[in-house]
């Protein structure tokens, strides 16, 4: 019987988070053997998978980028190819690309309390597409797959869609050969993907209509940060990056707190800015004034007001209505209006998926994630030696992702210092359960019950405050809620030449 390969730490996913995690582990836990298991063929995650027109970040790159590698390009709100290039260059510079095992998908994970190790069942796909299954073991698992289902989006049923003679496409699976030049396009949706697609497609389409059931809050932001440009001219790259990053973190936090504490004032401010940019207060009242308060759902950023610019130019329009049925030539609405279309894009959102679809078990017994709690936004009760990367909903994903990666490094080093073979997050008293992601967005509400919850206090709360989280993550006591098992209490047999 062949003994499975053993590693100290396995990172699942080679996207923005996974590359950052590996950089942190290499720097802060230099003696550990680390591998990244990536189901796809390349590094990049979201930024390689999504290739629809105009794809871009909705956070500034000084906070979406890594704190240890300055963002040097001109645009603060960057396009997808620029972000992908940044992630891959970071991986190459830090030697992370050599740690990635491509076409390797984790399909099962079981923790043994006897050996204090995870056994991962993995499927590897070769050049011919043939899949072989094998196992490996590791001391610690860090899931950096995000919380979206990248294989399947949210697909509502549209009556009569089979009768439509044009093209129906999903942004998640954008066809490379789709030609929409000179054609009439209807984009169904009002979220970040829709407001990105509309101005981009309007450059060559005959006309683009954004069809929404209800409005979404829009925030007009500059594509370039002029203050950042001045700072970068005056200071060395690393110092400039830290200063701009700090400025943007504090501004984003202040704006979020303003919206949550004074929602009426926030509504007035956002509608006022939209009316100024669009120059049509009536259109703003009808199409860009939601019934919910700002930050009950995530705001959509439009750099340099590009969506409003194509609306003013007449190359695009917005319709707020419900779909009655598709027809052979387009979409008929509940109001009776018909939208002619050659191409329909269903930007109706993604589905959530915990741990990339892995259902973890301990000693062969499945641990139901929805019964568990998250400690410091990272470690799940009932699952030893496992952490998950969950970004912020009110700020850049990478802000929390990087904190979580640094926390993982602290936990791994804490285990070594205390001679622990395993640690598991355990509350010292009963917690009141709250949803992990506290937003009213439909894509969250549809699946949040399948995720671990957050508690009502202390390290069991998943806060939306980077400043407080940074202090707690980097300086907080790890001993109070992490229950350790000494190495002397477990049975291990480590083959020569393998980590452990």
TrEMBL record:
First and last residue of the signal peptide: none
Residue ranges that the Swiss-Prot or TrEMBL entry lists as coiled coil: none
Keyword line: FAD, Flavoprotein, Monooxygenase, NADP, Oxidoreductase
Pfam families in alphabetical order: FMO-like, NAD_binding_8
Keyword Oxidoreductase carried by entry: yes
InterPro entries cross-referenced by the UniProt entry: FAD-binding_MO, FAD/NAD-bd_sf, Flavin_mOase-like
GO molecular function: flavin adenine dinucleotide binding; N,N-dimethylaniline monooxygenase activity; NADP binding
Cofactor names: FAD
Family under the similarity heading: Belongs to the FAD-binding monooxygenase family.
UniProt-recorded name of the protein: Cation diffusion facilitator CzcD-associated flavoprotein CzcO
